[in-house]
Amino acid sequence: MINISLIVCTFVSHKIKKMQLEFYKYQGTGNDFVMIDNRTEFFPKENTKLIAQLCDRRFGIGGDGLILLENDLDTDFKMVYYNSDGNQSSMCGNGGRCLVAFAKKLSVIENETTFIATDGLHHATIGIDGLVSLQMIDVDTVKVSPDYVFLNTGSPHHVQLVDDLENYNIKENGAAIRYGDLYGKAGSNVNFVKQIDDTTFSLRTYERGVEDETLSCGTGATAVAIAMNVLGKTMETAINLNVEGGKLVVSFDKKEGQFTHVFLKGPAEFVFKGTIEI
Ligand SMILES: N[C@@H](CCC[C@H](N)C(=O)O)C(=O)O
Fold first, then answer.
1. Distance in angstroms (rounded) separating the CA atoms of residues 205 and 225
2. Number of domains in the chain
3. Please, is 146 exposed, middle or buried when counting C-beta atoms within 10 Å of its C-beta (0-12, 13-18, 19+)?
4. What pLDDT sits at residue 5?
5. Cα separation of 136 and 113, whole Å?
6. pLDDT average, residue stretch 190-206
7. How does pLDDT run across 23-46, given as a tens digit for each residue?
8. 2 lies in a domain?
9. What residues does 190 pair with on adjacent strands?
């Protein structure tokens, strides 16, 4: 005879089995991330709902994204990035800089590293001022249209100059472009820009996968710097970017329309550490 109560108990105890998840919270110019040391590969990477819940600012820890630090055979570590909607996505510049600071906190690296991310190898250094400088992918294709520029700096970016950046409705206008005909199902991140002086631009970014404005976007700042150089708005190859959450600097070498040695530099700071039951 089958013992029904045993089956029910096993089912119930299986259902309520919880685990303590240790996390670290980092931010880079206000672009914030839940960081998890997944070198033992314990994290349920396919659980989109869980990742979205951990990033939720009311029901979870809160963050624009979640990043796993994993082992890699050929480099110091591997970066696995998820947007706050729970889906794995393309490169995150600020997240990469924060992950470098996290790797140092875990003693995986000291002040210099090479790691692997979805768009390839990244070299990075941590300065004595604590600023993290991250090498981004080379850029050789920049699409210039009358009203905007499109380029991929590890993630896709639409760049558009606007008159009244301070009062511009980033969420509404960004979403219209992200979901519009231009970029199809994949969509794009959308950056609105204002020139401040010869070497400085302010930008506000609508991020795909967060589906809202974030306080900063590293691949976005990189895209804006290159786009402004291509448009002839600046002749400089080291450009200051004011984002809502602080300041970034993007530098590059330019030769025959190719952008190489592209570096994104700025703060990457530990905020707090904790455990959450999942
Ligand atoms: N905040 C990031 C960009 C993250 C990726 C983006 N949301 C996408 O899915 O394309 C950055 O700092 O670059």
1. 13
2. 2
3. exposed
4. 41
5. 13
6. 98
7. 999 999 999 999 999 999 999 999
8. no
9. 158, 206
Q: How far is CA 49 from CA 70, 82, 123, 207, in A?
A: 21, 12, 32, 19
**Shared-domain flag, residues 146 and 246:** yes
- Give bridge partners of residue 32 from the DSSP assignment: 27
Measured from the CB, is residue 189 less than 6 Å from ligand 1? Answer: yes
Q: Are residues 115 and 169 in the same domain?
A: no
β-partners of residue 81 are 67
Flag whether 152 is marked binding: no
Asked if 217 is an active-site residue, the reply is: yes
User: Is 87 annotated for ligand binding?
Assistant: no
Q: Residue whose CA is closest, atom 5 of ligand 1?
A: 92
Is residue 92 among the annotated active site residues?
yes
* ipTM surpassing 0.90: yes
Confirm or deny that 94 is annotated as ligand binding: yes
Q: What is the CATH number of the domain that holds 27?
A: 3.10.310.10
State which of 88, 91, 189, 211 you would mutate to test the pocket of ligand 1, scoring each by most atoms of that ligand within 8 A of its C-beta: 189
